[in-house]
């Protein structure tokens, strides 16, 4: 049996580990099960922590620290690597065409090719000095051009845009952050939370421009020297960086005639409508039997879980991917923030579709009542459903984020505290903490 | 906060540091490696986080660098009651 995995990201690596858990390699104490695994990818840097690029940009990490696996780790998993871009899937021949390489046959194929940044479509976007943050290569290019005291314009929304802002701030650049609407990440954060983030950015010296949109990047001798805004105003700058959303890399699947919506459609076994082709990670749009919908996530943990499920199913061990409450921990303007379950609604003017570190689920808020506490840096907002908590945002102090993650993902019945949570001036944090302590001791018995 | 509470809190912290170990929550981890990068004795904390295993390592100083530096709150100290009896 020959398994081919396309994509160097976490979904692909998790799939290989899963296949090897069924068919251990000689190094893993097995005979390999007559199984051949080939990993194909076009990122010259291989497998690294994509979310970690944010900390590489701020200088908290050396790039070499971003690689979670050594050559020896890979050796133990016993697979071959082909570096190259897959140009076509020939389904009836079970073959992949790869640029500059001989064709590769497969018995089972996993597409874990991820997503890429939406391009900024304005005149001048091709000028030298305009950056996105997709890959290691982008981060290196940005760092090569970062200079103390120079000016940068950042455009976009969600987590990646702020990672760019924070990266430039940490290198003492003058940062102009352009927002199309009147606040940051309006599809997920509420007004108060947006204001907390914006205020902290301003304290770091970031200049926020609301209701601002770039109509042109201007340049001289092919290099950026400014941006023109919709009101005609020119902002002088040395660099422009954008993060306006991502687009799943569905081209291969589309050309192969697989079913596609926003991503590649897969059932709960991560299988496409071709039984020998699977998809996982940012490119996959996974069916969730509990809601009957197919949702996109662009998060590390679901990508890993989906990759694992795909690998097990490919190796013949039927395993459904059970979607847990989407969950992310991130730093927004230096403030640790955990987002769990459904927390927001509506659209975000600064993003097209989904962003990295984002989940569509966060925006699909059913009827819920908000309970909140704290209006400074330590803020807690809960979305209280009929019997369960549907979502939470924990900013600053993270003591409650662990219990909340368990309460929300476990659909724990919160009837005993629902009334208390919704009372005016409720000490929401204390109520949750007490509930969690008694819940745990009841479970442990 | 009274001086007693303050000292008690400090003492509790040291008890946990000396008698506990670092436990990861893999669902939060993105394998960035800040933990391993900052470990003064070079323990690959990240690999533990991938496997969801506590950092039970004879050389771990429980210095707390990895816990403090993790930008996503993956790591926490958990007290092990191997050496401490009662409510420390």
How many beta-strand runs of chain B? Answer: 2
Q: What is the CATH third-level topology name of the largest domain in chain A?
A: FAD/NAD(P)-binding domain
What do the pLDDT scores of chain A average to?
Answer: 91
Helix-strand pattern of chain B:
HEHHHE
Tell the overall outline of chain B.
Answer: elongated
Mean of pLDDT of chain B:
81
Could you estimate the helical fraction of the residues of chain A in percent?
A: 25-40%
Q: Quote the beta fraction of chain B.
A: 5-15%
What share of the residues of chain A does DSSP label as strand, in percent? Answer: 25-35%
Structural class of chain A, by secondary structure, is: alpha/beta
Determine the N-to-C terminus distance of chain B: 20 Å
Largest sheet of chain B: 2 strands, antiparallel
**CATH class (first level) name of the largest domain in chain A:** Alpha Beta
Which CATH class of the domain at 26-80 in chain B is shown?
Alpha Beta
**CA radius of gyration of chain A:** 23 Å
- Under CATH, the topology of the domain at 26-80 in chain B can be stated as Alpha-Beta Plaits
User: Radius of gyration of chain B over alpha carbons?
Assistant: 14 Å
The CATH architecture name of the largest domain in chain A reads 3-Layer(bba) Sandwich
Describe this structure in words.
The complex is a heterodimer of chains A (445) and B (88). With 445 residues, chain A is α/β, with parallel strands linked by helices. Chain A folds into 3 domains: 183 residues, FAD/NAD(P)-binding domain (3-Layer(bba) Sandwich), CATH 3.50.50.60; 126 residues, FAD/NAD(P)-binding domain; 118 residues, FAD/NAD-linked reductase, C-terminal dimerisation domain (Enolase-like, domain 1). Helices cover 26% and strands 28% of the residues of chain A. Chain A is built from 11 helices and 28 strands. Chain A has a 5-stranded parallel beta sheet, covered by helices on one side. Chain A has a 5-stranded parallel beta sheet with strand order 9-16-10-11-12. In chain A, strands 23-24-28-27-26 form a 5-stranded antiparallel beta sheet. Chain A starts with a strand and ends with a helix. The mean pLDDT of chain A is 91. Chain B is α+β, with helices and mostly antiparallel strands and 88 residues long. Chain B has a domain of 55 residues: Alpha-Beta Plaits. In chain B, strands 1-2 form a two-stranded antiparallel ribbon. Chain B is elongated. Chains A and B meet through strand 23 and helix 9 of A and helix 2 and helix 3 of B.
